[in-house]
From TrEMBL:
Residues 90-483 form the Solute-binding protein family domain. PROSITE patterns: PROKAR_LIPOPROTEIN (PS51257). One of its GO terms (biological process) is peptide transport. It comes from Sulfoacidibacillus ferrooxidans. Belongs to the bacterial solute-binding protein 5 family. GO terms for molecular function: peptide transmembrane transporter activity. Keywords: Signal, Transport. InterPro entries: Peptide/Ni-bd, SBP_5, SBP_5_dom. This is Oligopeptide-binding protein AppA. The gene is appA_3. GO terms for cellular component: ATP-binding cassette (ABC) transporter complex; periplasmic space. Residues 1-28 form the signal peptide.
Amino acid sequence: MKKKSTMVSAAAVVTLSALLAGCGGNTAQPNGSNTSSASTTPVNGGTITQTFPTAFGLNFIPYLSTSAYTTQAWSLQFDSILQYNAKDQLVGDLVDKWQVAPNKKMYTFYINPKARWSNGTPITSKDVQLGVDWLLSKSYNVTDGGAYGYILADIVGVPSSGYLPDGQTPSGFKIINSHEFTISLQHADAAVLTADLSGIVPLPSSILGNIPMSKWKGSSFDRMPTVGSGQFIMTNLVPGQAITQKANPYYVFGKPHIEYNVWKVVSTDVVDGDLASGQVTIAGIHATDASKMKQLPNLNVNVEPSNAFDYLGWRLNNAEYGSVFSHVRFRQAVEYALNRPAMVQALYDGYGVVENGPLPPINFWYNQALNGTYAYNPAKANQLLNSLGMKIVNGWRTLPNGQPFTPTMTISSGDANIERQADFIQHYLQQVHINMKILPPINFNTILNQLNGDANGKQPIQAFLLAWDLGNDPDPRGLWRSTDDMNITSIDWTNTNDPAIKENDKLIHEQHTRKAFNLQYRINILDQWQQLLNQQMPENFLFDEDSVTAYNKDLHGVVFSPYGTLDEYKWWISPSS
């Protein structure tokens, strides 16, 4: 699964799959343990403060928000049925055992006997059923524009529309008893367990089961859930500013050592001072500040490759310039025009790598053949723009009809490095005579709202800077198919009359068919798919910046991975904190 995140330098953003797994690093060795303490015996109690670099959303019912920051908060309150460990292996969570039928079309799950809600009541198959019904409901998929309903669309009994009337359970979901249930699929699917079913989040049927789904969004439970199955439970909320969460005494893997986890909105531009003073315990920092922060005696600094990438998107249906944005040669020209290695060096002190496709180089499934493509070549960029009939008049490119071409770029507030990144892009595009204008920064959630409401291409967004955090499984469904909501609302690469888009949909389908249970076959298909997107460039892939995180030396047990931090319930702080 994937989600939009604002493009924030070294932001503490983790992938959806990792978050759902239960949110682990080492100052010196990635994927290791923090051993800075003289004592290795965890201590219970205390408060840690983490940060969001920009305002979070206010929908905390699982999957209502595609914001990485809102998801970070609710993913600590609600666990999924399965999770990934530090070795990227699927392991138990609220479900501790599962079986796959020989036909690969039926899965049997057994709920962990220790799984309880934060009020002490057992988590049952009925709660899992409500989580399934929610993702497949009309309210979620239609009224609320749900982005993740696709993950359950292949369950037996789900119509081609991909959703059901509110409260209706697909016939392929069967409750065997309070702690056992089965899910039957219409097709054998090589990715469904790792990419989809593992992310099912049980919901408290004793509470939400009494509220019509049409009224869930904006409800008091949505604004601040009163119970949860995760590591921490919300106790206080200051909209757009802070969230306080308390340790869940009934957490399936044991009560967290940390008593309170606080999220505060603190710009990455000023968070260094709060880390130095101890007001913030752990936060993403600018890579350019890493050397300075390493000198502070109270901090550790961890640098980790991330399973995410930054991109420059174009609203291909834009009413004013969509006729240009939708040309693959235009997007290829932009890719050649950007000196991305120089940007990685200038913006991140070299902490990052150039991105040439839809999967980051750190990912197991990355197609190595993409390395070195679209090397900086302004002459090639100019050649492609000339081929589109975009003449240069008074120093600037025009539309093929001779009208001025002055596209605008929308960027998020809260991080000056985003503005620097936009400045670099503007500079390089000016070198090939594209008169790009940068709009004043706006709130991240405003950007999402404008993208989500841009079916006719008349919203002010034309070009924009965002990022994608990717799940542990590379399944492109949910983002890259022509019918996927996050494609439609992000870039609109959806014209099925385009042979390339038809091929895209075909390859995405093929990578999860029965044949794809053969690992090498799936690798080959995903290699072809990545090559296609590299050639078509539906959005301009920029770079995969490393996650640079500073954290107080009194914080122990933190484990970092390319998918984010893991197992916050194991974290603890020294008594002196």
